[in-house]
Specification:
The chain has about 400 residues and is an alpha/beta fold. The strands form 2 sheets. Strands 3-2-4-7-1-8-11-10-9 form a 9-stranded mixed beta sheet, sandwiched between helices. It has a two-stranded antiparallel ribbon with strand order 5-6. Helix 9 crosses helix 13. The longest helix has 17 residues. The two termini are about 20 Å apart.
Length: about 400
């Protein structure tokens, strides 16, 4: 049994739209990068967890995805486990590898995620997001909503205008509903959401691996078209493709392969949601803080699941970085900026770094490890010693269906 588990290597490709590349190719590049990062070879890897959510829907590769993607690059024969946990898939892969080392089964394992979300058939692409919900319940809700819209006057926007705007995933409607409720209860403003989004876009200009690398002002975010009020396009994560990976090891392995760049995993927690109560963020973060022997005030920086700007606002409250209802003022004060009290999403987050679902959680890990190593360049957080990653996936009731929270420390 290993008490101290480390991340010894990380790798990530630039997120973007790769219509001409396959999952196998994206996986191979991330694998090559993570091995190069820690100067290890394929033979050092004792087991692997492969994260992917959509290959079955887009390419009919429903089964043995990890075996197919990894064996194409010479990684075979070892135990390979396929992980699918909606947007939390990649962080679940990391947690699974951590659990196996913790149990004493292995000393060096791989967590890797690859995803191709972008498709020229936009309707099919957006429909794929429904798989992250209880499709039976969601289907009934959509049909009821359509009936309500047909009965209202004036009639909904024309199909031509909806096509022009490009449509959006059902999750944007979920986030928009949450944002509106938060605004009613706490006085949160659309401008505060725009502050969060502009921060994400501006951080990503310093991240060469981000999907978006252009700056945005608060006014530009507010003036973008409305996806689902109060969320404008600039407040929502883009669709895209990508791959990311991490290699975890035991203390025994680290002694045999010394590295000054290893990062200690202080906590690794996976929780599931509930129809009865939306408390998954509190349960996951409290368990992680307890495991690490730390509290919210000990965290120097964080990567949180900001599929929309409201996602970041909501999680900064639930993770204890500010009191309930004060996520908007926290962001507006500059506290979550790169030079603030608790920098959040220095990578640009899902909003701007991108959100290839099966790779997003490991992209968060890549960013935090890079920060703790002091290798983040112009986006380097000055006092990066303890870092937290929160990655949620899917929806059960009005909360996430799955969530991982990890806490890391500069070794």
């Amino acid at each position: 049994m290993s008490d101290r588990i480390y991340i010894i290597g990380v790798g990530m490709i630039k997120f973007g739209k790769y219509l001409d590349r396959t999952i196998k190719q994206l996986t191979g590049e991330a694998l090559q990068r993570v091995l190069k990062d820690c100067d290890l070879g394929i033979k050092d890897i004792e087991a692997a967890w492969f994260s992917n959510t959509g290959w079955g829907m887009s390419g009919f590769q429903h089964c043995i995805r990890g075996q197919v993607a990894l064996s194409a690059h010479g990684l075979d024969k070892i135990p390979i486990t396929n992980v699918e946990n909606a947007c939390a898939s990649a962080s679940t892969a990391l947690h699974s590898g951590w659990t196996a080392i913790k149990a004493g089964l292995y000393d060096c394992v791989l967590a890797i995620g690859a995803e191709k979300v972008y498709n020229e058939n936009r309707a099919m692409m957006m429909q794929g997001f429904l798989a992250g919900t209880d499709v039976e319940v969601t289907g009934r809700m959509i049909e009821e909503w359509k009936k309500q819209q047909q009965a209202k006057a004036p009639k909904p926007e024309s199909a031509d205008q909806d096509k022009k705007k490009g449509g959006h995933s059902v999750f944007m409607d979920f986030y928009a509903f949450g944002a509106r409720e938060h605004m009613k209860k706490y006085g949160t403003t659309q401008r505060q959401l725009a502050v969060i989004a502009a921060k994400a876009h501006n951080n990503s200009t310093l991240n060469p691996l981000a999907q978006y690398t252009f700056p945005q002002t608060v006014e530009q975010v507010l003036q973008d078209y409305v996806v689902a009020y109060p969320l404008t396009r600039g407040m929502c994560s883009p669709v895209g493709d990508g791959a990311a990976a991490a290699i975890l090891c035991s203390e025994k392995f680290l002694k045999q392969h010394p590295s000054q760049r290893a990062v200690l995993i202080r906590a690794s927690v996976l929780k599931s949601g509930s129809w009865a109560e939306n408390d998954i963020s509190e349960r996951a973060s409290c368990a992680a803080y307890e495991m690490a022997g730390l509290g919210p005030k000990d965290i120097d920086l964080a990567e949180v699941h900001d599929a929309t700007a409201f996602g970041e606002l909501y999680q900064t409250e639930k993770l204890g970085f500010c009191p309930e209802g004060e996520g908007g003022p926290l962001a507006e004060s500059g506290a979550t900026a790169l030079d603030g009290r608790i920098p959040v999403n220095p990578s640009g987050g899902l909003i701007s770094r991108g959100h290839p679902v099966g790779a997003s959680g490991l992209a968060q890990v890549y960013e935090l490890v890079t920060q703790l190593r002091r290798e983040a360049g112009r986006r380097q957080v000055a006092k990066a010693q303890i870092a937290l990653a929160e990655n949620g996936g899917g929806t059960i009731g009005v909360g996430e269906a799955a969530m991982c929270v990890h806490i890391f420390e500069k070794a």
